[in-house]
Specification:
Elements lengths: L1 H11 L4 H17 L5 E6 L4 H15 L4 E8 L6 E7 H8 L2 H9 L8 H14 L7 H4 L4 H10 L6 E2 L3 E2 L3 H23 L4 H4 L4
Antiparallel strand pairs: 1-3, 2-3, 4-5
Helix pairs in contact: 2-9
C-alpha cells in the first residue's frame, strides 16, 4: 500500500490539481470503476484543500447513480494529505455482512454495524487515531480474508504471491486477479488519455 502511494506521488509532479486528481483517480481506481474490485484507496496531497473537497463532492454526485461512493477516510493534520476511498457500496455491504468477516472484525475491536457507513466510520477513526496502520483495512479493499489474516499472523512474511497485496492462498489465482487489475488499469488509463470522460469508464452496478 505504501509503495503504491509513493508511486502516485512521483506521478504528481507539479501539474494542476484538478487534472492531477482525475489522473490519479483513474490510475488507482480503474478496477473499482469497471466493477472488478469493490474498492480502491489512494493518498492525495491537494494544493488547495477546498478544491479537493469540492472535487470529492462532485464525484460523489456523478458516481452515485452507478453505485459508487467517494469518501475521505483521513486528513493528515501534519501534511494535509488525504486518504481517499472509492467503493461500490452494495459489494462492500456484501463483504462486511459475511459471518467470517464479521467475526474477524469483532476480534479486531470493531462494533458490528448494519451499514457500510458504520464500519467505515470505525475504520476512519482507527486511521486517524491509532499509531499502527490498521491492517484489517484489506477487508475494506476487497482482499480475501485469508490474505488479511495471513499477513497479520506472518507479519508480512511467508506469502505465496506479491502484487497489489501479499497473498497467502493459491498463487496462480492471485496472479490472475492481479493481471486483470493491471490490464483494466492500462485500458482505462489509455482511454482517459485519449479523452474519454471518467464517467464513461464506469460500469454501472
Amino acid at each position: 500500500l505504501k509503495v503504491d502511494m509513493a508511486n502516485q506521488e512521483k506521478q504528481s509532479g507539479g501539474r494542476k490539481m484538478e487534472r492531477l486528481f482525475e489522473e490519479v483517480f483513474v490510475e488507482v481506481c480503474a478496477p473499482t470503476l469497471r466493477g472488478i474490485k469493490p474498492s480502491n484507496l489512494f493518498r492525495y496531497q491537494p494544493q488547495n484543500r477546498d478544491k479537493l473537497l469540492e472535487a470529492l463532492d462532485f464525484w460523489n454526485r456523478e458516481l452515485e447513480p452507478s453505485g459508487l461512493q467517494v469518501r475521505a477516510l483521513k486528513e493528515c493534520s501534519r501534511t494535509g494529505a488525504f486518504l481517499i476511498l472509492v467503493y461500490r457500496e452494495e459489494w462492500l455491504h456484501f463483504i462486511l455482512g459475511k459471518i467470517s468477516v464479521q467475526h474477524f472484525l469483532k476480534k479486531s475491536g470493531y462494533q458490528m454495524k448494519k451499514t457500510v457507513d458504520g464500519f467505515l466510520r470505525q475504520l476512519s477513526n482507527r486511521l486517524c487515531l491509532e499509531h499502527d496502520f490498521p491492517h484489517e483495512i484489506g477487508i475494506f479493499l476487497g482482499y480475501p480474508l485469508e490474505d488479511v489474516v495471513g499477513f497479520i499472523e506472518n507479519q508480512g512474511k511467508n506469502y505465496t504471491c506479491s502484487g497489489y497485496w501479499k497473498t497467502y492462498g493459491d498463487p496462480q489465482e492471485a496472479k490472475r486477479r492481479f493481471d486483470s487489475y493491471r490490464e483494466c488499469t492500462e485500458v482505462c488509463r489509455e482511454k482517459y488519455r485519449q479523452g474519454t470522460p471518467i464517467i464513461q469508464l464506469v460500469k454501472a452496478a
